[in-house]
Amino acid sequence: MSIKNKKQSEWQKSRKNTIGFFVGKQKKGLSLKDSPWVTLAAGVQLQNLVIEGVIKEGMKVLDVGCSIGIETLYLSKQGLDATGIDFVPETISISKQLVSLTGSKAKFICGDFLETDFTKDMGSYDLIIDQGCFHHFPVSERSKYAQRVNYLLKEGGLFFLRGFSDQMLPSPTNDGPIRLSSDDIINTFDKFLHTERLYRFKNLPLPEPHAYKPQIFWAFLGKKRPGNSK
């Protein structure tokens, strides 16, 4: 059964609210210990795709909303040509330090996924991943997000999304990520992507707030449909 917010989240009205939240954290001083979404672990669902051979060495991948780049670095270490993008300068600075510390070949871009100029990368990615970014986008910008994913993927390329599901409790403060339904995902991406997998899973538990417990996420694996070059 889905759990619906009685009131529209402020974050659903404009992405400026989302950006404002993260910029506010940045101005106060980014603290990783107070950022519960920084788990320091590549998601089990992502690792399983590597183990199964769905994600393979040599693939070119873009990690959308990469934060400090844990999954970007993980995929780079698995032999992928991995790039992460995030609009918070402090997180990108940390990710670049981790590149130096780990000897990874991962690359990082500080920018907005919807606004960054990817002209030279059109149709070049084998894989795009998103762990916890899309669910921040308001409904009005979902189409633009899907178009950008389609624009960047090769024909037959894969998109792997993980985000809050509608089985998570609503936020008591009426903010935070949108709880997505299966229709939200299918209706956004079906024009461009064939659904390979769509399932809910329990993600790593977070210490606070209570509204984020349990962490019931969607995992969506889509494959770019033939003939969708734009």
Describe this structure in words.
With 230 residues, this protein is α/β, with parallel strands linked by helices. Helix content is 28%, strand content 23%. The chain has helices at 15-28, 44-52, 70-77, 89-102, 142-152, 182-189; strands spanning 60-64, 81-86, 107-110, 125-131, 153-164, 193-202, 216-224. Strand 4 (125-131), helix 5 (142-152) and strand 5 form a beta-alpha-beta unit. The protein is globular and about 45 Å long. Residues 1-8 have low confidence and may be disordered.
Going by helix content, strand content and strand pairing, the class is: alpha/beta
Biggest sheet, strands in spatial order?
3-2-1-4-5-7-6
The CATH homologous superfamily is called: Vaccinia Virus protein VP39
Q: Could you say how many structural domains there are in total?
A: 1
| CATH fold annotation | Rossmann fold
Please report the number of helical segments.
6
- Overall geometry comes to globular
Gross CATH architecture: 3-Layer(aba) Sandwich
The largest sheet is: 7 strands, mixed
Gap between N and C termini, in Å? Answer: 36 Å
